């Protein structure tokens, strides 16, 4: 059974970079055919797909965030990561990592505040 | 972006009764590969979303058969044949045919 776990700071200062890591267990991130995603949910709101990446391919970013987002894979650690630059309070959300839309992490709340 | 519109947004249901949620997309969701990438998710309070249905009508492993999905083109429906207490939560449709992937705004199911 594939499991995913997000990790990273729960508090980020405005204008700084939000950095999260998703650790994958129960399967190899370098096995083909799956895409690895970041999705967020603003407090009490709906879901927003941030972007995804296939192993050995370029990532896809939501145009609404494209100028600030980087998603990358580290096969040696079986992890993938999210970096969101120049954050504001509007980036406060629960951030989920997922494999395809099938397996999701438990989510991690990131608050942007000074 | 493809806009996904769900109705109703709030759905009070008596235990044992059926429930139905509609999802309409602003563009047709048939992909060039012939598949329609329309999924349904359940999010129980305090939990991550859980996929129930993929490609319109395919139930995920472990999903009770009281859940079913149907539809085509731009109109899709999630049905629960007999609502149980554990079905309380928010239900989302999601389209994966067009980038960016987009979700409906969610339908909150509660027990009447």
Discrete helix count of chain B: 0
Give the low-pLDDT segments of chain A.
Answer: none
Task: Specify the overall morphology of chain B.
Answer: globular
Number of strands of chain B: 11
Structural class of chain A: mainly beta
* N- and C-termini, Cα separation of chain A: 39 Å
Beta content of chain B comes to: over 45%
Quaternary organization: heterodimer
Main interface by residue count? A-B, 15 and 19 residues
User: Can you give the helix content of chain B as a percent range?
Assistant: under 10%
Radius of gyration of chain B: 13 Å
> How many helices of chain A in DSSP terms?
0
General form of chain A: globular
The sequence of SSEs of chain B as H and E is EEEEEEEEEEE
Any idea what the radius of gyration of chain A is?
A: 13 Å
Q: Average pLDDT across residues of chain B? A: 97
Mean pLDDT of chain A: 95
**Major sheet of chain A:** 7 strands, mixed
User: How is the biggest beta sheet of chain B arranged?
Assistant: 7 strands, mixed
Q: Give the low-confidence spans of chain B.
A: none
Task: Give the terminus-to-terminus CA distance of chain B.
Answer: 35 Å
What does this structure look like?
The complex is a heterodimer of chains A (114) and B (112). Chain A is mainly β and 114 residues long. Chain A is built from no helices and 11 strands. The termini of chain A are far apart. The model of chain B has no long low-confidence stretch (mean pLDDT 97). Chain B is globular and about 40 Å long. Chain B has 112 residues and is mainly beta. In chain B, strand 5 (50-54) and strand 6 (58-59) form a beta hairpin. The A-B interface holds A 46-49, 60, 62-64, 96, 101-102, 104-107 and B 39, 41, 48-51, 54, 60, 92, 94, 96, 99-106.
């Amino acid at each position: 059974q594939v499991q995913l776990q997000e990790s990273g700071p729960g508090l980020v200062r405005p204008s700084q970079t939000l950095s999260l890591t998703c650790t994958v267990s129960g399967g190899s991130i370098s096995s083909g055919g799956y895409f690895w995603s970041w999705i967020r949910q603003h407090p009490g709101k709906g879901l927003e797909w941030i972007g995804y990446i296939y192993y050995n391919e370029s990532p896809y970013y939501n145009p609404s965030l494209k100028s600030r987002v980087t998603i990358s894979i580290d096969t040696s650690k079986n992890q993938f990561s999210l970096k969101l630059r120049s954050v504001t309070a509007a980036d406060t959300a629960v951030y989920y990592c997922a494999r395809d839309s099938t397996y999701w992490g438990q989510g991690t709340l990131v608050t942007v505040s000074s | 972006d493809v806009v996904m519109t769900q109705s109703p947004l709030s759905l009070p249901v008596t235990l044992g009764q059926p429930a139905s949620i509609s999802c309409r997309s602003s563009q047709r969701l048939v992909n060039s590969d012939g598949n329609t990438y329309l999924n349904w998710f359940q999010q129980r309070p305090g939990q991550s979303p859980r996929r129930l249905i993929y490609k319109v009508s395919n139930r995920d492993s472990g999903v009770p058969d009281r859940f079913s999905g149907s539809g085509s083109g731009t109109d899709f429906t999630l049905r629960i044949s007999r609502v149980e207490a554990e079905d309380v939560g928010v239900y989302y449709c999601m389209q994966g045919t067009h980038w960016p992937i987009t979700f409906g705004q969610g339908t909150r199911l509660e027990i009447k």
